[in-house]
Amino acid sequence: MMRDPWLSATGPVLCVVGARPNFMKMAPILRALATHDPALPALLVHTGQHYDADMNDQLFSGLGLPRPDVNLEVGSGTHAVQTAEVMRRFEPVLDANRPSCVLVVGDVNSTLACTLVAAKKGVPVAHVEAGLRSFDRSMPEEINRVLTDQIADLLYTTERAAHENIAREGIDVSRAHFVGNVMIDSLLVNRPLAVPAAETLRRAGIEPSVFDVTRGYGVVTLHRPANVDQAETLGPLLAVLRAISERLPLLLALHPRTRANIERFGLHGEVSGKRIAALPPQGYLEMLGLMSGATLVLTDSGGMQEETTALGVPCLTLRENTERPITIEQGTNTLVGRDRGAIERAVDQILSGGGKRGRVPEFWDGRAAERIAAHLAAWLARRRVEMGT
Ligand code: UD1
């Protein structure tokens, strides 16, 4: 392909974040690019896919992320509108900054949108957390993963199974590099700073006399459309949680989508009471504190399946599949879907026997971002030679 004359092999690495799960992945990468010798200049672009203070500011500051150099402020919309709006607003940022490459993380709409824009302009794309597959194309994230990996130049992976997935889709496996898990880099750096659960509750106005975390508790997050968008699904799920809370008090950190649907379906009664507390979305250090002290975690989040594996806390995943199989094979994760019996049996096992303890997977060692910086620096240096710049 003819390269545009403005293509640069010396420009900054344009790092893209859009939504909450991107932030904890990008923080260690930015640090590693800055501390690499020589430093790799980087710019941080926030697409603004997530914009609430709860979903955004609190997380940014908790992770020590720098203020974004550019905020595209796209906000919410249908998938088509959001993806298109990110693309439309990202293109002039590429033109103005002439990056040596675009670095995207994860599987959100912003990941795919920025990858598409860059790839069509001949700007190399590095995808961090590549190759994960749930094999469930009803998940928007799965579409984002499959398409991003097809057109990205560098695929940095968190687990070896990702390489088989990539090969199966006809992608040149020499583009894939096993570097480990940047999410765990963040976790290991921030663990000593985690906010104790009792403190988080106190800040939410919940006294220890009402909810005593020292006697064991579970943490719950739910936000996948498949779990929360229909009353017939969300209602029974909340009813199971209420039943579990009779035996183990539960703390729910509610995503705005879930909170809105609970209101809309009139389910508020299911998540209030002495043994079940609904909190707003939590900051990173608060969530880390909540998970670290928990007896178990019930979630449909991708990242929390990995974080609980790293923390050695049993995790029950309220989905039929996972794109992160290593958390089941080696870690503390169990898939329980939405079936009441399966969920209750798994909870029983944990309450009676402590549950899976697992082990920490290979390269989930706090150095994944360093590996990415080292590889990317060498790759860009070779490219500079090839381009004669
Ligand atoms: C997105 C990601 C998902 C990720 C999740 C984590 C995609 C396809 N999905 O899903 O992978 O796990 O973020 O949070 O990119 N809303 C707010 N404030 C915000 C953001 C959203 O109120 O800051 C509301 C929106 O109005 C919308 C709902 O929450 O109604 C969903 O937000 P959206 O960003 O569309 O998708 P998520 O479900 O958050």
Write the SSE topology.
Elements: E1 13-17, H1 20-35, E2 42-46, H2 57-62, E3 70-71, H3 79-97, E4 101-105, H4 109-120, E5 125-130, H5 140-151, E6 154-157, H6 161-168, E7 176-178, H7 182-190, H8 197-203, E8 218-221, H9 225-228, H10 231-245, E9 250-253, H11 256-264, E10 276-279, H12 284-292, E11 296-299, H13 302-311, E12 315-317, H14 326-329, E13 333-335, H15 340-353, H16 368-387
Parallel strand pairs: 1-2, 1-4, 2-3, 4-5, 5-6, 6-7, 8-9, 8-11, 9-10, 11-12, 12-13
Helix pairs in contact: 1-7, 1-16, 3-4, 4-5, 10-15
Bound molecules: uridine-diphosphate-N-acetylglucosamine.
What is bound: which ligands? uridine-diphosphate-N-acetylglucosamine
Mean pLDDT equals 95
Structural Rg: 21 Å
Task: Determine the fraction of residues in helical runs and give it as a percent range.
Answer: 40-55%
Could you give the order of strands across the largest sheet?
A: 3-2-1-4-5-6-7
Shape: globular
In total, the number of strands is 13
Major sheet size, sense and barrel closure = 7 strands, parallel
Strand content: 5-15%
Structural class: alpha/beta
End-to-end gap: 18 Å
Number of helices: 16
Low-pLDDT segments: none
Secondary-structure element string: EHEHEHEHEHEHEHHEHHEHEHEHEHEHH
Characterization of the model:
The chain has 389 residues and is of the alpha/beta class. It has 16 helices and 13 strands. The chain has helices at residues 20-35, 57-62, 79-97, 109-120, 140-151, 161-168, 182-190, 197-203, 225-228, 231-245, 256-264, 284-292, 302-311, 326-329, 340-353, 368-387, and strands at residues 13-17, 42-46, 70-71, 101-105, 125-130, 154-157, 176-178, 218-221, 250-253, 276-279, 296-299, 315-317, 333-335. The strands form two sheets. A seven-stranded parallel sheet has the order 3-2-1-4-5-6-7, with helices on both faces. Strands 10-9-8-11-12-13 form a six-stranded parallel sheet, with helices on both faces. Helix 4 (109-120) packs parallel to helix 5 (140-151). The longest helix is centred in the C-terminal third of the chain and has 20 residues, at 368-387. It is globular. The model has no long low-confidence stretch (mean pLDDT 95). Bound molecules: uridine-diphosphate-N-acetylglucosamine.
